[in-house]
Amino acid sequence: MRLNTISGRFALLTTMFVILAELFILLPSLAGFRLDYLESRLERAQIASLALLATDESIALDLESELLETAGVFNVVLRRDDIRQLVLSSPIPGPIAATYDLRSEGVLQTIDDSLAALFDPQNRVIRVIGAPVNQAGQLIEITMQTAPLREAMVEYGLRLLAVSAAFSILTAVLLFTAAQRLILAPIRRVISHMTAYASAPEDARHIIIPDARLAELRDAETALQSMQQTVTSSLKQKERMAQLGQAVAKISHDLRNILTTAQIFADRLEDSADPKVRRAAPKLVNSITRAVNLCETTLAFGKAEEPAPTLSRFNLAKLAAEVIEAESLAAEPAGRVEFLTDIPPSLMIRADRDQLYRVLANLARNARQAIEATGQSGTVEIGAGESESDWWIKVCDTGPGLPDRAREYLFKPFTGSTRRGGTGLGLTIAADLIRGHGGRLDLLRSDAEGSQFCIQIPRGMAALSMRAEPAPA
Ligand SMILES: Nc1ncnc2c1ncn2[C@@H]1O[C@H](COP(=O)(O)OP(=O)(O)O)[C@@H](O)[C@H]1O
Ligand SMILES: [Mg+2]
Predict the structure, then answer these.
(1) 424 lines ligand 1 (CB under 6 A)
(2) Does the CB atom of residue 367 touch ligand 1 within 6 A?
(3) pLDDT at 471 over 50
(4) What's the pLDDT band for 465 if we cut at 50, 70, 90?
């Protein structure tokens, strides 16, 4: 049995408490025993002296010594009517070592005296004074030896110890069994429940049903139950989401192939002889292209992670110019959104060029679309610079700011879009790509005056070596 188990602690504590309790019982009992012993000696001496007083004055010597022997004392002095009278006497074997007046001893004094008597191995002569029984005088005084007293005390103490040891063993056994039944067994039950649950947490049958009778344990069971319910239901939901994700990926894949074929045919419609068909053709092509894009982004997101960035050094201003060129072409109507840059022409940065292009294009397109949706004109500006540790790129616009919904689900897939035909994936993917560079994408500001996103990419080797490790889940 180890001491760091509940059973071990219980056994140890019980033993300690019982020993403590025994000490508390033993000391006063011993003191009481000594007092009783001395008082009975006084009583016997009184009887012996009364027997003598009743007979003639001239008493035979052998009767006197017999009386004293029976009483276990050397001599007896009685004081009646203020006359001190040596009633019985015999030779004393040594000087009187101490005098005890039982009429005036306090409790602590008695305990102290009894301990002294117990641990003094020498046989001494002592004088004991007490009050005679039945008011048969004012005082009775005897002289006696300490050895028989000590012997009786030792015997009594040992008997008391034996009895209380038996009691304490019994108590310890009872407590121990009670603890086993009342506390340990229920705890083991909870533990076995937990193990069973852990082996198949998606199985709701293993969720614990609180039934402990101990209030504290029952509380623990209730807490455990609600935790297991949460875990089980979120596991189930996760599983469903994973299945749904697979289905969506499959659908997107097939749909993209079908739509690509449709795109080819729609292209041909532009050459139709029917002018109505010719006019409708570009709109059809546009819609199909948007649908293909949706399929492709969904598929890209479905892939567990983007490939690790392939780093190269390139001129950032040139990259930004490419992004702006593409976005200006896509702008509708052309010219309402003005694109600006504020990038040092010589600024070289090290990153994955394609991935950074996608990030900037996403941010610039979002800004352009937000401005276009207001029906007013505005500007989108890409600024950049470097600090000792990072490169930073800011994409600012004078649009209406992010809608509440978009801000609430910022960087969360599929949920934050407020745009018709939007997927809510653009910002999520952009943030993922920047994280892949060991950097971060933040929304710095967004209000009625416009929005400002900031990309930070670390320049240091630490970030590079971090990127060599597998991306965190
Ligand atoms: N610069 C911006 N100004 C205003 N709203 C923005 C801006 N950028 C993003 N948003 C909002 O955030 C939403 C999510 O953007 P995004 O993740 O790119 O998904 P999507 O473009 O497919 O809607 C957008 O629908 C839009 O409402
Ligand atoms: Mg977008």
Answers:
(1) yes
(2) yes
(3) no
(4) very low
CA 454 remoteness from chain centre: 39
CATH assignment of 306-468, among 3.40.50.300, 3.30.565.10, 3.20.20.20, 3.40.190.10: 3.30.565.10
- How many angstroms separate the Cα of 309 from the Cα of each of 312, 384, 386, 463? 9, 20, 20, 12
CA 10 to chain CA mean position, Å: 24
Cα torsion 16, 17, 23, 29 to 10°: value is -140
Measure 262 CA to ligand 2 centroid, in angstroms.
Answer: 25
- Of 412, 417, 444, 454, best ligand 1 pocket probe by most atoms within 8 Å of the beta carbon: 417
The residues, any chain, with a CB within 8 Å of residue 376's CB and separated by 6 or more, are 336
Q: Would you place residue 467 in the very low, low, confident or very high pLDDT band (cuts 50, 70, 90)?
A: very low
Cβ neighbors of 240 (< 8 A, separation 6 or more) are none
What is the C-alpha to C-alpha distance for residues 39 and 387, in angstroms, rounded to an integer? 100
**Strand segments (E) across 93-233:** 96-101, 125-130, 139-145
Residue 413's SS3 state is coil
Question: Distance (Å, rounded) from C-alpha 220 to C-alpha 122?
Answer: 63
Which residue's CA is minimally distant from atom 25 of ligand 1? 417
CB atoms within 10 A of CB 73: 24
For ligand 1, atom 24: residue with the closest CA: 417
How many Cβ atoms are within 10 Å of 60's Cβ, its own excluded? 10
Residue 274 has pLDDT above 50, yes or no: yes
C-alpha of residue 168 to centroid of ligand 2, in Å: 79
Alpha carbon dihedral 24, 30, 36, 39, in 10-degree steps, equals -120
Of residues 264 and 397, more confidence is placed in: 397
- Spatial CA neighbour of 327 closest among 292, 298, 370, 294: 370
Distance from the alpha carbon of residue 104 to the mean position of ligand 1, in angstroms: 99
Q: Is the CB of 403 under 6 A from ligand 1?
A: yes
